[in-house]
Amino acid sequence: MSTEFNTLILESFPSQKDANELMDKMFEAAKPSSIFSEPVVHGEYAVITASETIAGLGYGYGGGGGVDGSSEGEAGESGTGSYGSGGGGGGGGSILGRPVAVISVGPDGVHVEPIMDPTKIAIAFLTTTAAIFMSMRRIWKMK
In terms of C-beta distances under 8 Å and separation of at least 24 residues, what long-range contacts does 72-81 make, across chains too? Predict the structure, then answer.
């Protein structure tokens, strides 16, 4: 194979450096500073918020190549052939964070107050109800 073809193949692969930089940015979200806020101090009290962080990441790469096995080139020259290659890649990610508790520290001790999310509670209720309904339906069909 020609040197140009080898160079094309080597340049087609995704950069490991870019993938590592993306992973570093995703792991940045898992540091304690992104989970717990800096304390807000007012008089004798300090308030800290605690958050839930969810991260997702995906990336992929695909490539292909080919060689025309003909022994004659376009101009009828013997011994020449066609080389082809292709590739592509992509990736993406998402980080979601939401507060789950407020921690207050003062002279009377430490208090943790959970932050209730009615939407999350409603989704959990509906999901559980649907799962129970589907299970009961299967049991009734078996009888």
Answer: none
